[in-house]
Amino acid sequence: MRGGTTSSTPGGASAELRSERAPQGEATPGEDAPPDAPDAAEDTPAPTRPRPSRSRMWAGRALGLASVFIGTATLLATGHGNRRVELDTYWQLADLRVLAHDPLGSVWYLHTQPPAYNIVVGLLAWLGLPITGSVFAVYVASLAGIALLLHGLLVRLGVGPIVAGVIVAVTLLNPSLLATMSISSYETPVALLLIGSLYAMVRYLERPRTGWLLATAGLLTLTAMTRSLFNPPWVLAVLALVLVARRVTLRQAAAAFAIPVVLIGGWMLKNEIVFGVPTTSSWLGFNMQRGIVAPMDADLVRADVESGKVSDLALEYPWGLLDQYEKWLDGCRPVHANEAVSEPEKPPYRGIAIANFNNECYIPLYDQAQSDALTLVRRHPGRYLHDRIPALAMSYQPAHIGHPDTWLDKAYGTVLLPVHVTIGMSDWNLPLVKGIETTGLPITVSLTLIGLSLFVAGRGVLALVRMVRIGWRDRASWPAG
Fold it and tell me: In the chain, where are the structural domains located?
């Protein structure tokens, strides 16, 4: 038996996600099958799991939705819902006053971030809705969407409905996720888009249909248009793997690739035309200054600065006010009049100046910082790899909803298996916190999160190998043109 078929009903996923063969001369419903599709006799259907009862499905969904209610109630009851000050000062958003006055015009002049999150917040503000409550409602709706989609995905992959509901509840009540809502970050909508992409992908792999393929491409694209971490190569690579795993016509493949090429490519083209930076996010350079240049050996960086290999900007902390970088600006003045790019600062908070990182005079700084970081990586690859260890450790710090700890913080403080470690920074070029060069930075790392990441990564590698193997095995059925 070459491979099993899969059921499109919940709980019906087989050992191998493989498309059903239609009888010779017939196409699977909803699929544009190539005229030379192989005979169905080559495949024998594999037994499928019994479909879970409707009552058990709804009981599992109810567990997930109950966790959304509990998490939301905990945030509001402890005073950790999002606040207006977070929206006013958050660096992922353009100046909220400017967004509210002209959301589309402001987003046109956005270069630090992909546009989706700013468009949503800007439109809510422009409509005159209570902005903090409206944005919080978006987060809660995202949690509810995650609950339903993740539960459906787990059931389709063979997990029982009740167990799936428990997994969803444990996932959504994690303080690290809920805490992002308090600071008005876009993590919950991004999580919804990622899980939606995975759900659509699994549905397509179970039974290839053009609609699910285009849904996968669209959701992957929207994810990249919301958070720059999910960059164009990531979108194209994931989409290419999906296309290799199942037979498609050239028309289907072209339609799927057209979505990210037009939308993401269009945004990059806009940035090239308006600002001269063909990217989805211009501030990658300062991210690299913090993540690559900062932990580099201080003596190595200073030597490279003195020899002219990198600029002396490599010795300066990123994410400062524009005045901090005056010596590198060469008298820069914004070319465009829109306040989203012309104002050096947002309105101050309690007398504290808030930088507007979307000011276009930051762009040459971002470019120089990126060039310096790449040069240092090429010149000192060993040190760069060494520095990935503390970077990985810090990415597994569990967040807290607030101080003092909420009941969820206390409960997950045990579940997440915290371990206290110290990140040494005595030889760092730019220590993350000034004054701790000798003592180091104490952090808490979750062993549970590390273990889950390794498990998911391992399963992902196995799934990737299986997808490519099946797609390559079926290469004889690929359309010739």
Answer: 52-185, 395-481
pLDDT, tens only, 261-288: 999 999 999 999 999 999 999 999 999 9
The DSSP element (H or E) to which 444 belongs, if any, is strand 441-446
Calculate the average pLDDT of the chain. Answer: 88
Task: Tell me the CA distances in angstroms from 205 to 14, 15, 474, one per residue in order.
Answer: 11, 12, 14
Q: Are strands 441-446 and 418-423 parallel, antiparallel or unpaired?
A: antiparallel
Question: Peptide bond before 404: cis, by omega within 30 degrees of 0?
Answer: yes
Q: How confident is the model at residue 315 (pLDDT cuts 50, 70, 90)?
A: very high
The structure's pTM equals 0.85
Question: pLDDT tens-digit profile of 157-188?
Answer: 899 999 999 999 999 999 999 999 999 999 99
* CA–CA distance, 101 with 4 (Å, rounded to integer): 56
Radius of gyration of the chain (CA): 25
| Residue labelled with tokens 């790019």 | 341
Report how far residue 56's alpha carbon sits from residue 310's, in angstroms, rounded to the nearest whole number.
62
Residue 20 near residue 247, CB atoms below 8 Å = no
